Amino acid sequence: MDKNLQGIFDNVKAYCDNNFKFDFNPANPIVRLHEPTFSHEEINVAVATMLSTFVTMGKQNREFEELYAKKFGHKYGVTNNSGSSANLLAVATLANPATPNHLKPGDEVIVPSLSWSTTVWPLVQHGLVPVFVDCDLKTFNLDLEKLEKAITPKTRAIKLVHVYGNPCDMDPLLEIAKKHNLFVIEDSCESMGAKYKGKYVGSFGDIGTFSFFFSHHITTLEGGICTTDNFDYAETMRVLRAHGWSREADEKQKYIDMYPEIDPRFIFINHGYNVRITEVQAAMGKEQLKKFDAIAARRRRNAELYRKGLEEFSDLFHFQEEMHDSESTWFGYGLVLKENVKFDLKEINAYLQSNKIETRPIIAGNMTKHPALKMFDHRIAGTLENSDKIMQRGFAFGCHHAINDEGCAYVIEQIKNFIKTKYESTQESNQKAFV
Prior knowledge:
435 residues, alpha/beta, 4-stranded antiparallel sheet, 13 helices, flat
């Protein structure tokens, strides 16, 4: 190796060793919603890729796609520049004329009301009508009984979300989809590595979507990937992510032979976007994959500690529950206040944040409550009371790799302290009133 390059690598490692101290520190307790998953390994491969000058999507990306697909049990992976773009590509593919019996403007697509904006917007952007269905308060996932009741002759697809890493109940959901001949898109952006009956999410429907954003399980800074076992869907996504260009197709020679009168370097066979990632991101992603198992194991450990430590408050909080045959990878740890509590959401959020524990809403809450929905055609199927409860009374805090046992204990301690102060002050008031 060039001695200058080795010197850069050594210096980056030394810098990270000295400055990348993101683990929980009891001397200065801070629990953020997320901490960086990358260190000198990713920075150095990024630098090496930059110095090679081969930086636009190429061999590194294809290697990353293949490694990702192999690790998580998919036939094909198609990277893109964000989880939001992954959702866009999934919908665009199923709504594309190249797809048999494709989705058409006016078709209805069932989507959970507890979701994220770019779970919904690709449907609107393709003239589809999102139909919002409530969640189950135990799992935070789609209520399947309400889902089936929402189906009409216009329904063509289900776009589910595995909320906060927790897999949906896929067997009955797929039975419903098969019964009504519906496409299934799995928005798994929060759920990388989660399993249902031993099989990774994103492997059950027609297309799965994942995010590599900074705050997700692994990162390429920005980035995403679509997964599928259908070659034609993968091929369409490869073309759509890069201008509709035949150059991105695995079967590009077919198009060269079909259109000999067009310069083979520039044949456009479909509409498209430019939502590619770079070789720098792909190189980072390959390094991040090596760390995934340890990251996921730590998240599961943290969730177990939180649940055990807070179990005594089950009369105050709804906990997100895993089904017995699933394995969550805990994007965050969410709690929902029950009706009988003597405090409100703002109070507990303010207390935790004053003690340097960051909190946030659970996804975006009930998406139908956001003002943007007023501008677009949509349908609400039944009542959305559980999504409303989660939006009005739910919050989440970090469950990530940088929180160790001490960090979990600190979060639990602060929640206990808060509850103690609220209930002791109530008891004191009652005693004074009695006297």
